[in-house]
Amino acid sequence: MSPKTVETTTAPAAGELPEHVLKFIEQTRLLPHPESYLIAVLQMLQKHFGYLPAKSLDTVSQLMQIPSAKVTGVATFYHFFTFVPKGKHTISVCLGTACYVKGAGILVDRLKEMLGVEVGAASKDGLFTLEVARCVGACALAPVVIVDDKVYANVKPDELVKILSKYGYKPK
Ligand code: FES
Fold first, then answer.
1. Bridge partners, 89 (sequence order)
2. 51 is in which domain, residue-wise?
3. Could you tell me if the CB of 151 is within 6 A of ligand 1?
């Protein structure tokens, strides 16, 4: 009777990655320096999921044979990668000097209260992510709030409910 082989390694959970990303990783294996495609893979994942799920990063690390600390390091280095799910709409409050002196900080506080979130997080209903930005180059319109790609100028705290209602916000 032949001895049984005991499998001790865990196979990469390929199911954590979408099919097109798996195919791409497979293609990179045939190329010189496949590890140099890590950023491209992360961009594809972020586009697919809207953020970088931890489990997917583990799978990328295994499939591309790149240490997970390096994968995480690259993902945290670039500000356009995010590790938390994004809301359907992104609200960005400019905190540049011109906007700040005209009350942008108060707008941020009011939005935090309205949405029940901290900066960088998504509201529980998944509708909004609250972010802050540096000068967006529209100082004459300060304070400025941008929702997705629409710019709102000279925003007053009391106007926020009306603005967000256009995107599905329902006051509690
Ligand atoms: S400081 Fe806000 S647009 Fe310039």
1. 128
2. 14-77
3. no
| Burial readout 124-140 (b: 16 or more C-beta within 10 A, e: otherwise) | eeebbbbbbeeebebee
Distance 57 CA to ligand 1 centre (A): 35
* pTM beyond 0.90: no
Q: Which atom of ligand 1 is nearest to the CA of 142?
A: 2
Going from the Cα of 99 to the center of ligand 1, the distance in angstroms, rounded, reads: 5
- Asked whether residue 73 falls in the same domain as residue 93, the answer is no
Structural domain count, the chain:
2
What is the three-class DSSP state of 20?
helix
Mean pLDDT (the chain, rounded): 89
Residue having the nearest C-alpha atom to atom 1 of ligand 1: 96
129-161 per-position pLDDT tens digit:
999 999 999 999 999 999 999 999 999 999 999
φ, ψ for residue 49, nearest 5 deg: -95, -20
Residue type, 11: A
* Residues 124, 157 share a domain: yes
140 Cα: distance to centroid of ligand 1 (angstroms): 8
- For residue 53, give the DSSP letter: -
Query: Are residues 68 and 114 both part of a single domain?
Result: no
